[in-house]
Amino acid sequence: MLNYIWAGLIILSLVFGMVYDINDLASDTYRNGQSFELTIEPTDPETTDARRVPVDVRINPAAYQDFYGVSSTPDSVYSGVVIRNEEGLQLRFAQDVSVPEPWATIRSETSERDNDMRGVLTGWSASGGTAQVSFQEVRFVKMRAIAAAALSMAELAVELALGLIGVLALWMGLLQIAEKAGIIHSVVRVTQPFLRPLFPDIPKGHPALGMIVLNLTANMLGLGNAATPLGIKAMEELQTLNAEKETATDSMVMLLAMNTASVQLVPPVLLVALMGLQINQLIFAIIIVTGISLIVAITAAKLLSKTKRFRASAPAATTEG
């Protein structure tokens, strides 16, 4: 079902992007191939004959609104530079200068790295005055953005997968050592009275309880990468108790619900890395919200497990029958 949801979202985004881009083409939002008139004045008279001439770019806000069909009022003066090259004159706005739409989109599409909008300049003399500027043509903005996002997320997925290999190998190795040393069984004996009401189907002393405790503890300590292999191992242990391998037991559902709630006593490592000491302001909010979500998750799993519809298909119920 999740695959269908993702496929539907991808198709919806593509349709949205195509409709948006077709509308841009029909209305000629970016005025491709057209020149815009502006006034360019050198800021340093001694550099008028140089290859790079610092300038002030002046535009008529009303003319800009009329030319691009926008309602927002742009600034009238921008800093920039005129560059002489073999192809003629090129106008470059200053890096990161705030420009109005649709110039902002034109800049992001044509000068993403340097973030300095560029255009071909005609009809300008070194002494200053009016000139015409034409920018590189821009088309299919949304479709390009969707494609770039897809490639970026694909790259991120590979990086996460490769980065998780080391964590999985480390924790699975530690689990093997803990199991051989008897630590898992000790953890089971200590925590069994607390977990028995939530996982009544697990036999007394079964190692699945120890794995569940370690998984929940890692989640509470904000160690999401460590909790993943522990949760997988817990599910594997629960599967050994499952009479119907294709259907999840009540204990599996309860563990998944508790992991989804992901109660946090310590902020996640990722948030600490991003926010630093500012994360202290969120500690109590995180504990309260995740605590409430844990209660809701446990309650929902217990109530649904007792309903006739889900009870009839539960592996334990089938086995008993």
Characterise this structure:
With 321 residues, this protein is an alpha+beta fold. The chain folds into 2 domains: 108 residues, no CATH class; 139 residues, no CATH class. Helix content is 56%, strand content 13%. It has 12 helices and 6 strands. Helix 4 crosses helix 7, helix 6 packs antiparallel against helix 7 and helix 7 runs antiparallel to helix 8.
Short description:
With 321 residues, this protein is α+β, with helices and mostly antiparallel strands. The protein has twelve helices and six strands.
Separation of termini?
30 Å
**Using DSSP, what is the number of strands?**
6
How many DSSP helices? 12
Q: Find the structural class using helix and strand composition.
A: alpha+beta
Which features would summarize this protein structure in a list?
alpha+beta, single chain, 2 domains
Q: Which secondary structure elements does this structure contain, and how are they paired or packed?
A:
Blueprint: H1 2-27, E1 36-42, E2 52-58, H2 61-68, E3 77-85, E4 88-93, H3 103-110, E5 118-122, E6 129-135, H4 141-181, H5 183-195, H6 207-220, H7 224-239, H8 250-261, H9 269-275, H10 283-306, H11 308-313, H12 315-320
